[in-house]
Each structure stands twice: as structure tokens, then as C-alpha cells.
Amino acid sequence: MSNAQATADSRWKRRFFTIWTGQALSLLGSALVQFALIWWLTATTGSATVLAMATLVALLPQVLLSPLIGALVDRWNRRAVMITADSLIALCTLCLAVLFASGKVQVWHVLGLLMLRSLGTAFHMPAMKASTTLMVPQKHYARVAGINQALQGATNIAGPALGALLLRALPMFGILLVDVITALLAVLPLLFFNVPQPQRRGQAHGAATEGHFWSDFREGLRYVWSWQGLRLLLGLTMLLNFLLTPAASLIPLLVAQHFRAEAEGLAAMNMALGIGTVSGGALLGLWGGFRRKMLTSLLGIGGIGAGILAVGFAPNGALWLAVSAMLTVGVMLSIANAPIHAIMQASVAPELQGRVFGLMNSLSSGITPLSLLVAGPIADALGVQSWFVAAGVACLAAAAYAASNQALMNLESGSAAEPSRAGVAETSVEDG
Fold this sequence. Notes:
Growth Hormone, Chain: A, 2 domains, 14 helices, disordered C terminus
């Protein structure tokens, strides 16, 4: 490696991983506060309706608004979007901490904060993913996506554990202040490092750049709809969410009704899934996957199918087999998901990524209520194992179909519908 290459490599790593570390701390703070608030609602109200409402208010902003927010992210400065979103989340959390400290908090205050946090995430998520495309060299997309999967898995394990620990050590307002601090730590690096901006269409040729918001929104929808491979990839992510979200929600029933195990059995299943997710993300971060990212993702989808099938067919005296299968599912989830994000970052024009990631978030989140409505009656009528068997078969069939579909397999090489990236440029590659 030449000195110039080493300097460039060091520069992008310093900038990206400094920002990434702040985001990781904020994600952990959000996870432990989310756990603490849900537990507070459970202990205070004992109402399933309130808990369902908490899930709903945390879901609706991302389902209903993400496509519109994605269009705004593509119009606005992405660093400013992330700073504003994190700062507003910190401010709202601080207000709730004051209400807890004064003893004036009400259930609707907590529900309102959950909704505002979800709205902030709906802005932050596409801005960060789209910014990653211009901060990280393309050859490292899959590795970074794998690291992000490992982070998500680690947060899912550590967040509830730290939340439970802090509930014993701190009052609720103290826990909320922890989240305020981690949110500000996410903002701090963004004040010192520049985040590259894509060049909007027409800028390279001196054309006007101030289009109408709704024109931008429609352009994003047309972009996705006109590209068959991208449509199929979004459909594949929706299918995985449709199959796997109910499976995760049915694990407690599977442990209690089929395996006749206690809470320790449920803990073992959840820990296996979390450890597997972290391990799979770490593996992909080191390995990087196959040269064709879609092959890596299909390996993961096939592995998920095999693991879910093993859970579904495990005899009632073989909880250990189900735990081992869940470990495999966790590993394969990272191997399946991370390359999908890397493919989209590499294939979608940077100036449109806010819209595409926003639409992806909306569709993936929106399919969740439908999948739960379908899975519940099936599990009640045919037994809880039936959904695991059906989901496993469907994952294997989806992997086989995707492998035979040329539009999907050739997505990484571009499409006639995919616009040229020649006009895409960073505002700056230097630290600022």
C-alpha cells in the first residue's frame, strides 16, 4: 500500500468510526431507556392495551412517514438532519426526566416520548445509511454492514440487561439522563467531522436544483418501481420480516407449550439468537462475504430457513436442539441482512438513498402488524410449531427463487433503469 493510499484509508476510518462510535453509544442508551420505559408502563398500568398502544405509537411514525421523510433527507443536509434528530430526542427525553423527577409524569407523557423518539429515528436512520455510502469505500460496504449487524445484536443483549440493572440503581429520571448524555455523545462527533453530500441531479450540468418536494417524492417511487431488481429486493426484505417477526413473538409460547420449559428456557433461546447475531455480524465484518453480495445474502436466507425448520421440528424433549438452531438463525440473520444493505448502498444513486431507505423502512415496518394478525390464528389452529415450519420452508423457497432470478442476481451490476452516478460528488472529503 502506498503512503497516499494509507493516508486515505486512515482518513475515512477516523471520520467514519468516530461518528459510528457516537451513534453506537446513542443506540445503547436508547435500548436501555426503551426497556426501562416499557417496564415502567407494565408496572404502573398492568394493562395489555397500554403496552399495545406503546408498540403502536413507536411503529406508526416510521410506517406512515418514512417515505416522505426520505425525500426530505435527500433535499436537506444529512449531517444537519442527524444533529437535529439526535438533539430533539435528547431534549424530549430531558423534558420527560424533569416530569419524572417532579412526580408529575403521566402515561400519555411516556407514550408521547416513544412517538417522538420513533419520529427522530425515522429521520436519523436513512440519513446515516445514506451518508455511510459517501464516507466508506464501496469495497468495505459489506464489512461495515456486518459490523452494524453485530452492534444491533449486542445492543439487543446489553440494552435490556443494563436497563434492568439501572432500574435497581437509579430512579427513572436518572436512567433518562443516561440516554440524554448518550444522545449528545452522538451529536458531538458530527460537530467536528464533515459528512459528504451527494450532488443533486442537474447540478453537474448547471441546472436548477430546487425541485418541488412532491416531485422528489414521486421521483423516488418511480426510481424503485422502474427497477425490477430493486423492487424484488425490497419484496424479499418484506417477506423476511413477514416470516420472522411472528416467529420471534411466538418463541415464549413455543418454550412454554411445546418444550414445557421455564423462564430459563426462554432466556436461553433469546440469548442464543442475540449471540448468533453478534457472531454473524463479526464474522461478516472480518470476512466481507462473497464477491457477489447477493450470494452471501442468499446463503444467509437459506441458513435462516434451515435453522427455523430445525426449531419447528425439534422434539419436545430437545430444547437444546432448538437453542442450537436459534444460534444458527442469529448468525444467518446477520449474513442475510448486512449484504442487502450493502447492495442498496452500492447500487442506488446516493442522491436518492434517503428516499429508498425511507421506503424500505416503511414497508418493512408496515408488514409487521399484518404478519402478526396472520400468524396468531395459524399458530392457535395448527400449533405454534406450524409457523416455524412454514417460515422455514418459505425462506428456503425464497432463496431458491432469488438464485434463479436474473434481475435480482444482476442487481449489483446495475440496470438500464438505474441512473448514472457520474454526477455524484462529495462536497468535501476532508475532515471539517
